[in-house]
Amino acid sequence: MEEKIANAEIEVEASAARVTSDITIEKRDAAKKQAAIVGHPLHLFTKENEALTEVIHKTKGLIEDIKSDPSDVNNSKINEIIDSLRKVAIHYAKKGDLVYPHMKVKYEISGPSDVMWSVDDEIRDELKFIAGSDFRNTEYLGRLEHAIARMEEMIYKEQNILFPICTRFFTEEEWYKIYQDSKDYAPCLVDFIEWPEAEAVLTKEKPDSNAKEGMINLPGGHFTPTQLRAILNTLPVEISFVDENDINCFFNEGPKLFKRAGMAIGRDVYSCHPPKIEMMVRSIIGDFKSGARDKVSVWMEKEGIPVLVEYIAVRDDNGQYIGTMECVQKMDEAKKHFEK
After folding, report:
1. Strand 305-315 and strand 295-302: pairing?
2. 33: pLDDT strictly greater than 60
């Protein structure tokens, strides 16, 4: 597996070299200038990388302590450092939701999503193994050293390849949208940093609440758009809708267990999933289209909360497939009720 990833990385770096052939020191300096703008997404990404670098440094010290005298190592200290390392999952989730798909779909730069995304997942999986293992396990130190080495490589690639590519292509409007979507994520060792320029623009773009609105008429009744929006956002379920052409059309708003970037609206659904998940999504939607299945239910635990995720085929009055709906529902209250 490692050899496969290594070979893939060689390919992506060759691809990146072609894309970035004119990204000189000047272009990298341009990325640094954007990263210096307080609150800009690259500013926050860079601050997160700096904080992660500090944690990696502490981890290296911990490794030396374990090698020197395992009996003198405090378990709580190990857990604290590993928990901090695992915060990188938030940083990687933002890249996976807000950066990789946009580069691939809008600018046809597929290298980062094809390989960096897989490496991000590899690092997360390694850290998950480490968090669930005893530091006296023979594999522990080797895998921990491997994980932090991969994290350092990723930090370097982000700062010197990924971010300069973003600077070269992304428009100011796109950065505003990435900034707005970033608000939905938990902090990754660094608190969210407000970008005044973006806030001013986004506030100005809010629709006039006094504007007259028409009615949405349905067989079961009618709503104003404001009422319908509020109802959809009040439902105790996260809703996503993908049309018959596999294009993301709708997400209800509000805090979510499964983050949904506003920039993903209008993109194909497959570009929003990491490589290891994409084939499963294609299989489910393919079965919905063929009529082989109408619903797929997945039970899981997310952030310590029992969750039911349902993928449901949406069909019109004639039974024709018109899209797929994903519903994510927290089941902690139901669990408590039946445990009484």
Report:
1. antiparallel
2. yes
